Amino acid sequence: MNKSLENKIKDLQGQFDIEMPNVGHFERFKAKLDAAQKPKSTIWKPLAIAASLLLLLSFSWNYLSEKERQELKEVSPKMAETQAYFTSVLSQELKAINKVKNLENKKIIDDGMAQLKILEIDYLSLTIQLQESNEDSRIIFAMIDNFQKRIEVLKSVLNQINITKQTKNNSYENKFI
């Protein structure tokens, strides 16, 4: 192998580029590289300021709206018990989902959480309406219905995860049969 390498080098003798580049070549090359690089933008500073302001506004809006909202539990002791029950069930379902959360079912969970977020926003709207309506029973029933829908969404997510898991297990078993 060494002989063939030596022969190859001898054959290519005189074809190697051993000359030095022209004077100023490196400077011209560096100038071209510098010109090709985009100048660093300072857009992150205004974005950071805007994000900070948005965060501050959202916190202040949340704080002010909490003062205006009336929770279901404030209507009566029975409604407080109802809200505690639904909150407990929601918490249990969320814990169950978090236990089985992985990359394979992330899409299912994300979709369910998006639906849950919409229902939570609706609930916040209902709490404000409850305050304004002087404890209208229709709004109280709508709030209870909202809790039930959130629980249904979470149970549906768990069901879809289980179906996906069973389908995957069945297809895995069929490969070996």
What integer value in Å does the Rg equal? 33 Å
N-to-C SSE string, H for helix and E for strand: HHHHHH
Number of domains: 2
Biggest sheet features: none
- For this structure, the quaternary state is single chain
Please work out how many helical segments DSSP would assign.
6
Structural class: mainly alpha
> How many strands appear in the DSSP assignment?
0
The proportion of strand residues reads under 5%
Q: Which key terms come to mind for this protein?
A:
2 domains, 177 residues
Q: SSE layout and pairings?
A:
Elements: H1 2-11, H2 25-36, H3 44-68, H4 77-100, H5 106-132, H6 137-176
Summarize the structure.
The protein is built from six helices and no strands. It is an all-alpha fold.
Description:
This protein has helices at 2-11, 25-36, 44-68, 77-100, 106-132, 137-176. The protein has 177 residues and is mostly helical. The chain has two domains: 21-68; 70-176. Helix 4 packs parallel to helix 6 and helix 5 packs antiparallel against helix 6 (137-176). The mean pLDDT is 79.
